[in-house]
User: Fold Probable thymidylate kinase from Vulcanisaeta moutnovskia.
Amino acid sequence: MFVAVEGIDGVGKSTVISMLRKKLESNGYRVYTTAEPSQSPIGRLIRDWLLKPSSNAAHPSIFALLFTADRVQHYYGEVKPKLDSGYLVITERYMESTLAYQGAMGLPQEWLMELHRFVPRPDLTIILDAPIETVIGRLSNRRELEVFEVNKEFLSKVREFLLRRASTNNYPVINADRDLESIVNDIYELIIDALRRVI
Assistant:
């Protein structure tokens, strides 16, 4: 099964996924975790570019095209082989990130969806959510901030996009402004329930 964990910057995706993997593995599941931008050459280019102030001036379509190109490579080069080998694959970020972030930058959802024509949807998409003040507090402790992490108003807009997409598509939304164990347990139960439905 392929699971995507989405949410704005600073909501705790990396930490939650790391703990979730340990919990799943301790219960006998073969788990592979990954993230976007990926470790492909396109992903590394994106990661480097997002730390440069000059990327602020880039047209939003450049971000959308780069992220989607990386996503296609990520899925077919990394995710699908693991799925074919019987792993439960969990990715930190996937298509909802582009729909929300580049949607918040003003790009039409119809065009962003069209870019994803050749990108399979996850079996389960989970949205981690926390108040904007909480994530801003967490981000303030980071040494280097990417272009999308420095603007409170922008992150608020991205959060609105994600919650709207969750409502439209019936994605579960997990309150990430709690203790980690509770968050991980809630996501674990969602994954186990979904696995029971597909097996």
In short: The mean pLDDT is 91.
